[in-house]
Amino acid sequence: MASSLLLFFLFCSVILLPFVVAQTKTNIAIGDSHTAGKSTTPWLVSSPSGDFAFGFLPLEATPDHFILCIWYANIQDRTIVWFANRDNKPAPKGSKVELSADDGLVLTAPNGDKLWNTGGFTARVSSGVFNDTGNLVLLDGASSSTWESFDDYRDTLLPSQTMERGQKLSSKLRRNDFNIGRFELFFQNDGNLVMHSINLPSEYVNANYYASGTIESNTSSAGTQLVFDRSGDVYILRDNKEKYNLSDGGSISTTQFYLRATLDFDGVFTLYQHPKGSSGSVGWTPVWSHPDNICKDYLSAASSGVCGYNSICSLGDYKRPICKCPKWYSLVDPNDPNGSCKPDFVQSCSEDELSQREDLYDFEVLIDTDWPLSDYVLQKPFTEEQCRQSCMEDCLCSVAIFRLGDSCWKKKLPLSNGRVDATLNGAKAFMKVRKDNSSLVVPPIIVKKNSRNTLIVLLSGSACLNLILVGAICLSSFYVFWCKKKLRRVGKSGTNVETNLRCFTYEELEEATNGFEKVLGKGAFGIVYEGVINMGSLTLVAVKRLNTFLLEEVQKEFKNELNVIGLTHHKNLVRLLGFCETQDERLLVYEYMSNGTLASLVFNVEKPSWKLRLQIATGVARGLLYLHEECSTQIIHCDIKPQNILLDDYYNARISDFGLAKILNMNQSRTNTAIRGTKGYVALEWFKNMPITAKVDVYSYGVLLLEIVSCRKSVEFEADEEKAILTEWAFDCYTEGVLHDLVENDKEALDDMKTLEKLVMIALWCVQEDPGLRPTMRNVTQMLEGVVEVQIPPCPSSQLSIQCSLD
């Protein structure tokens, strides 16, 4: 018996020893490394107690991508308290972190690209140690600290961590998005601890919505350090050694609870506790938070507010803001619940509406709701009825607030700083909406296999009503089945298209377009017509009728558009609303873009404003970044040109026409395919039988950017020979220092020469003949937004390079 136990013990020791060693490894030696997704354990090193770990964790949305981070290791949700590589794309599977004597911790991608490093040392690193406080420290040969994670602030403080003047925490962009967010907790140089938001992607700081007030005065001294001590207290230590407590109530035992103080993505700074040794069902519980009511305390004239534009902020549990769109409004980005809202109807100042406003519009009444600082006129004294009538008759008025018994504040879109505020004492907000929205189509009722309960409820009413409802269910079920069958038939071979697209009949679209009467545009594959469809309200649409005499090519474009659009949703992409397929017809229904194409805007006698052109250039870049890196599957558009960039009511750029787009599989970064695109915008690799990557879109964007800057076409044979090819002429203007020739008499552009030069430099990087020299669209957006400095571009092509050397 004893010998059996001994053998068992030895067996367990041999089997478990490597895991014990891995879990208790607290030091890192030079050359030690760890690879994402290729290890039995996700950590490189853990703290002596095992409370913290440092290594790679997979991202929830994209498990094949990882974040290098420090997290609480002994709780189920593995809460991240520090992370590397902020504002860069996550590390793909196979990325490696290694400790180097010269650069400290170095994170490299599988292809060898350096993603991040601690760097900036005055002495060589000799080792690393991970403390029980959760602090990862790199040491030099004299065992002095050269870098600490506690000094590299993210969004969280841990017990025993301090923050000096001039340091700040930055929130995440969203709950599971580790990019820099809108909110900052900043310990100012005057000793005041403040919270404010910034207007991304710039660094413009809005007014403080929280301030500790710990500045020098006649009665107190200034704050000198923000301290999170081992007792769980968070306080500001003043010059005179007095404490200004942020904590509410007594201390919390760090022997019984894990603690963290986090500036959350929604702007609230909160102390959380989590019982040690608890079951998986117990999570983090807020202990206290600041400010008391962020919805009321936040007020900024230069931003949307806590929530996005046209949204309403109300206070939820634990002082957390809840953002909601008003009725008949919906999120611009469904993936961002705290983002901006857009009206689901068109409010117009057209002449045909002026005489029948009361027939078209009504009011949604909200109590104790306001959007401060969005007013454009105050009417006083006014009665409630006068306030309603004044807004009804004013085509610019979207909301009227009646309060104080005689005051009427009229507001127009976009609305900012929206909040529910009980101190308004019953004030009424009259939100103008279209009446036809009150008859929105009810979504089809899908009868599941187990539908006995549904039928029992139906049978409990009147017989006549039951028959109507059962008939409606059958019809809607048939409709849903028919649509799904249709989607399966037009999807890629062996796959289904997962979309919310509506299946139209040919007769519906013929009626909607008044017999295909008004032409909006023509292309190689079809004609686009204006139409009006009842989709809950009368909605303007653009109906693309494909030329079926090119049946094989048209069928490819039709399938491609449906498959691609089923994977996308972004504010800089045109939305596909539905389709129709018959034996002889293929039609696609898009949202209507009231301001036409970018081509019609920039290739015009009168140039659009410089500011608008910059806005459009950035919008197109963000749309391409989404397709290349942020969509569930990488998409190469393959035909970026001004005719395929549409402009909505607010001149926001929307990429359209995905008929030539190429979808890459998860394990693909390149493909081989026949030449696609339009002359003047096509990268040279199409003609060299080279693998095609997303860099072909980057090339096309570079040409497009030069067109936006100069307001002239990429190829103009009527022009002088040296100006015929825009990319070559732009490079000549840049190298010769005569960029003013590129914009001619455009005063706005000439007054902003620094931006003009930056845009031309970005464009010249994009049109490099060598795809490897072109930036990614993420790099392009960062350069446009000023996050990354633009380096001097080389000659774009080998032919030009020869000419440059001769010159």
TrEMBL record:
SMART domains registered for this protein in UniProt: B_lectin (SM00108), S_TKc (SM00220)
Protein name (Swiss-Prot/TrEMBL): Receptor-like serine/threonine-protein kinase
Function: Involved in resistance against the herbivorous insect brown planthopper (N.lugens, BPH). Member of the BPH3 (BPH resistance locus 3) cluster which contains LECRK1, LECRK2 and LECRK3.
Protein kinase domain segment(s): 514-788
Keyword Amino-acid biosynthesis: no
Catalytic reaction equation(s): L-seryl-[protein] + ATP = O-phospho-L-seryl-[protein] + ADP + H(+); L-threonyl-[protein] + ATP = O-phospho-L-threonyl-[protein] + ADP + H(+)
Signal peptide segment: 1-22
Organism: Glycine soja (Wild soybean)
UniProt superkingdom: Eukaryota
